[in-house]
Design a protein that fits this description.
Length: about 500
């Protein structure tokens, strides 16, 4: 009995076995302790690595030497355990150092990718060292065999690996980020919604998901339309028949740019005369919007404003270069201005020629200088004011601003319902307006009740825009119809009471 106890004690005190037990116990304890104290990870790993190194060398089993021969299986197991703990701890410590010290200021994504690559190399080296020094396997033969296997797998997965490494390069270079709008040479464009190692996902203008392999993207010229400043520039090229001085045409187009609230005024939009010949004056309109996705909608709005300001300035768009046309006739310019205004205004589109002439003959011209108030909030207008040329700003008490273009009109609420204006109307440029008195409009509404519905719809849409929503888009069809019906009833009741 005493002999067995002595044998057991001698086994425990054996330097090799004792070193293995200490290494295993220390590794488990360190792993458990670091779960609650991650901030002390690097120093604790360094201290434990030094301790295991001293124990292994003192026991005559350096971790970087091959496993000894001619020892018992028990000694071989504990020698292997000691080396296993040492190599694992060394890799663990080096990986922690990489995570802590290898950082690039302001480049978190690049730091993470490089850290992952280096840590991966460290762990692969640790595994190969364990195979060589713990299990005594020939690493050279293993690497040669694995190299052949790697070549076979590489050829089989060539496309996937190409995408993988291209994804790594794109993540490090970071030519675009989530949320950016990018365009490719083949016309593909969209907003980046996802980036992974395999592909980049775009959401295009038609709300389709486009998946582009990273290998393809890495070879193409990618245009990032979303810089650090989200605003984006755009241009329009227009041609006009040279019936006016080029500077006057440019001034009219500058007003069209000023008329749009979607166009940023800083930096200011500009108009440049790029060409002049006997057939046309060519202008280039340049402007910026808040973000790239708004360009298409802003261009559509700008085309409408260009048309309206061109009509207001008696300008004619030239035909396409080489077509041989001149872009329209000359009979319209010979008609009186009030009559041309009634013929271009959608409000009077259903009237007969005689009715339009009657309205035109009753119109009175009003002119306002830049900055002059056309109507203040709380005023009750007694006539309909139709904008002939220039820009009028509409601003309510909350600061929401609209801008009226030629062909727009104000005063319908005061003229028809004797209601006060809820916004202030101010001339942004020199403005010419034509006034239609209450009596003429009342007679017209009695003969054409449908115009009351048009006025009510116009009034409800402007009120909704000043309230922060577009009634023509946001509100449901039933809601819009209910609002218009109520306004029509109020207009007709007001007309009857005043008769």
């Amino acid at each position: 009995m005493l002999q067995e106890k002595a044998d057991f004690t001698s086994v425990l005190l054996d330097p090799v076995i004792l070193a293995g037990l200490v290494a295993i116990a220390g590794g488990i304890a360190l792993r458990w302790f670091l779960r609650g104290h991650p901030a002390h990870g690097v120093m604790l790993r360094l201290g434990f690595l030094i301790a295991v190194t001293v124990i292994a060398i003192k026991s005559g089993n350096a971790p970087y030497e091959p496993a000894p021969t001619g020892v018992s299986p028990l000694h071989r197991a504990f020698i292997g355990a000691t080396k296993l703990v040492w190599w694992t701890t060394a890799a663990w410590f080096m990986a922690a150092c990489v995570r802590v010290f290898l950082r690039f200021e302001g480049q978190a994504r690049e730091s993470r990718v490089i850290q992952d690559l280096i840590v991966g190399i460290i762990y692969v080296g640790a595994v190969l060292s364990i195979i060589a020094y713990v299990f005594g396997a020939p690493v050279g033969t293993l690497l040669a065999t694995s190299g052949v296997v790697a070549i076979i797998l590489g050829l089989a997965l060539q496309s996937t690996l190409n995408d993988l490494f291209s994804g790594i390069a794109l993540n490090i270079g970071q030519p675009y980020a989530i949320g950016d709008w990018i365009a490719l040479p083949d016309g593909t464009q969209g907003r980046v919604t996802e980036m992974n190692w395999r592909a980049t996902h775009l959401l295009n203008g038609t709300n389709d998901l486009v998946v582009l392999p990273n290998a393809q993207l890495a070879k193409l010229m990618v245009t990032n339309r979303s810089s650090s400043e989200r605003s984006h520039g755009a241009t329009l090229t227009l041609r006009f028949v040279p019936t006016r001085r080029p500077t006057l045409i440019a001034e009219a187009m500058q007003n069209a740019l000023l008329n749009s609230t979607a166009i940023l005024q800083t930096p200011p939009p500009g108009v440049q005369i790029t060409a002049l010949d006997a057939d046309a004056v060519t202008l280039e309109l340049s402007f910026r919007v808040a973000e790239f996705s708004r360009i298409a909608r802003t261009k559509s709005e700008l085309f409408d404003l260009v048309y309206r300001h061109a009509k207001a300035g008696d300008l004619r768009l030239a035909s396409h270069e080489g077509s041989g046309g001149t872009g329209g006739g000359t009979l319209e310019a010979a008609r009186p201005t009030p009559l041309r205004l009634t013929e271009t205004l959608p409000l009077f589109s259903s009237l007969s020629g005689d009715e339009k002439e009657r309205i035109a003959s009753s119109m009175t011209r009003r002119a306002y200088r830049k900055g002059e108030i056309v109507a203040a909030r709380g005023d009750i207008l007694s006539s309909l004011l139709i904008l002939r040329s220039g820009i009028v700003s509409v601003e309510d008490a909350s600061g929401i601003e609209l801008r009226l273009a030629p062909g727009d009109y104000i005063g319908e609420s005061g003229m028809l319902m004797k209601a006060a204006e809820t916004a202030t109307f101010r001339a942004l440029t020199n403005v010419v307006m034509y006034e239609v008195d209450r009596e003429t409009m009342a007679q017209l509404l009695e003969e054409r009740p449908g115009i009351a519905e048009e006025l009510a719809l116009h009034l409800s849409q402007r009120a909704a825009k000043l309230g922060g929503t577009d009634a023509g888009i946001a509100a449901s069809s039933a809601t819009r119809q209910g609002i218009v019906t109520r306004l029509v009833d109020q207009i007709m009741m007001a007309l009857k009471s005043s008769a």
